[in-house]
Amino acid sequence: MNAKLVDVFSAERLSGNGLTIFPEAEGLSTAEMQALTREMRQFESIFVWREGDAFVARIFTLEEELDFAGHPLLGLAYYLHHAFGEGDLHEWRVRLDRRTVELTSAWRDGRFTATMAQGRPEFLKTLTNDEAGAILAALGLEFDGRRRYPAEVVSTGLPYLILPVSGGLERVVFRVADLSPLLEAHGAKFVYVLDVEHFEGRTWDNAGRIEDVATGSAAGPAAAYLHKHGLVQGSTLSIAQGRFTGRPSRIAVQLVIEGMQLADVRVSGEVVEVADITFAD
User: Fold this and answer.
1) Mind listing the pLDDT tens digit of every residue in the chain (281 residues)?
2) Cβ contacts of residue 75 below 8 Å, gap of 6+?
3) Is 280 within the bounds of a domain?
4) Is the alpha carbon torsion for 145, 149, 153, 157 positive or negative?
5) Quick one: which of 270, 213, 278 has its CA closest to 244?
6) 277 in any annotated domain
7) Which residues are paired to 19 by β-bridges?
8) The domain that contains 245 carries what CATH number?
């Protein structure tokens, strides 16, 4: 079995968010995919195979399978372009369990960029001050009575609780063993602590053991949140992440406005190849 290791949201190797791509994975069981993901110790791995003219993919974290994720799909665009592309620009459709994702891949001036159309964001819930305060306390943060922006659950495929702060990202410390019950009460899968002044975010697994380097599935909801609250000038922005993991990353987002409505959120990142991996038989 072969696999490819890439770094996403960076043009430099050993930076950005690492990803293992397993091509021709149709013969693997769910248990085997989960075991291989744990073996590689990346935040997520992606498994892909062809069914006729279509590409099918499954995404795993160290703990579970996800219906949708950001950086694995952008990294997959690199593999698809490398394996099946013939020019500098390509479009791809990848079928997941619950949706089909449209990807664009491009080589320009020796740099590779992948883009994912995440679609129209859903604003699922606005938390009360008391509800937001409970989440803040679980992360070792204090509620600021002068807060101008509410905590909201937003999804472009994976529901994130966007928890706005004004600086102080370095103060986050998990005070609970598992954040899942608090998040599930609001229909959220993960929390994304977003500095609304500096456009920088942090997110973790719900036990707080592993911090994600750069999260494409959260960048879309975060950008939609910033747009909703009038914090974005223009239709493009950049979100920083990964500073606290020693792998600073940049996530580019384009907001597609139709009339007065936010119709689509397109998340982009550079991808660089790190290694080809061959597993022993």
Assistant:
1) 899 999 999 999 999 999 999 999 999 999 999 999 999 998 899 999 999 889 999 999 999 999 999 999 999 999 999 999 989 999 999 999 999 999 999 999 999 999 999 999 999 999 999 999 999 999 999 877 666 899 999 999 999 999 999 999 999 999 999 999 999 999 999 999 999 999 999 999 999 999 999 999 999 999 999 999 999 989 999 999 999 999 999 999 999 999 889 999 999 999 999 999 999 87
2) 6, 8, 19, 21, 46, 114, 271
3) no
4) negative
5) 213
6) no
7) 6
8) 3.10.310.10
Last residue of a domain, one of 45, 80, 110: 110
Model pTM above 0.70 = yes
Which residue is it, tokens 């859903």?
122
Query: In which domain, by residue range, is 106 found?
Result: 2-110
Active-site residue set: 44
Look-up of token digits 């803040």: 136
Report the b/e string of 184-202 with b at 16+ CB within 10 A.
eebebbbbbbbbbeebbbb
